[in-house]
Amino acid sequence: xxxxxxxxxxxxxxxxxxxxxxxxxxxxxxxxxxxxxxxxxxxxxxxxxxxxxxxxxxxxxxxxxxxxxxxxxxxxxxxxxxxxxxxxxxxxxxxxxxxxxxxxxxxxxxxxxxxxxxxxxxxxxxxxxxxxxxxxxxxxxxxxxxxxxxxxxxxxxxxxxxxxxxxxxxxxxxxxxxxxxxx
Length: 183
Ligand SMILES: CC(C)(COP(=O)(O)OP(=O)(O)OC[C@H]1O[C@@H](n2cnc3c(N)ncnc32)[C@H](O)[C@@H]1OP(=O)(O)O)[C@@H](O)C(=O)NCCC(=O)NCCS
Fold this sequence. Notes:
By secondary structure, this protein is an alpha+beta fold. It is built from 4 helices and 8 strands, in the order ββααβββαβαββ. It has one domain: Gcn5-related N-acetyltransferase (GNAT) (Aminopeptidase).
């Protein structure tokens, strides 16, 4: 597959989705050090610049290996970085990957993830040739569950007590969407 496919710029009405660069680190740290944003994440909130820089480098390496696609979410109106969305855990033979999102607190509830998610899903199916997308979320994360359902995902399972982060144990709800599912 062409290298360029894993470094796209995807535009929607209000958003530009594009690969993160080192210069995005400070803004990214601001978003993902917020305990509210990270409440249902399977890692603790970021605490230092190195966390953001390591993440950006790790993403670039994984994208070069065509193992994941991680894109910053930028507002077209201000060019501000407001979050990230990703396709990861690619299984090439089965043509499936996982999807994930994170948005700064001040941008929740504005339909941005619906807009970014639709574009990312279409890119995964149409350009990367995927057949199935999966998502794993904390069932208590109502915003995420609602956003996934709106994006055409169905809940397919529940894994009990799957995670323990900072001593807090939580379940995982598994969601899936097929390329053949109605949108
Ligand atoms: C989960 C998250 C990505 C949703 O993004 P968002 O841009 O706020 O979602 P949208 O505005 O596109 O909303 C999609 C749907 O979910 C609903 N929704 C959003 N937040 C909600 C909430 N807190 N409770 C219930 N429903 C909610 C919206 O109303 C909308 O449905 P509607 O159009 O029928 O009204 C965002 O809240 C976030 O980044 N949270 C922190 C990180 C996280 O938990 N990521 C998920 C792990 S993969």
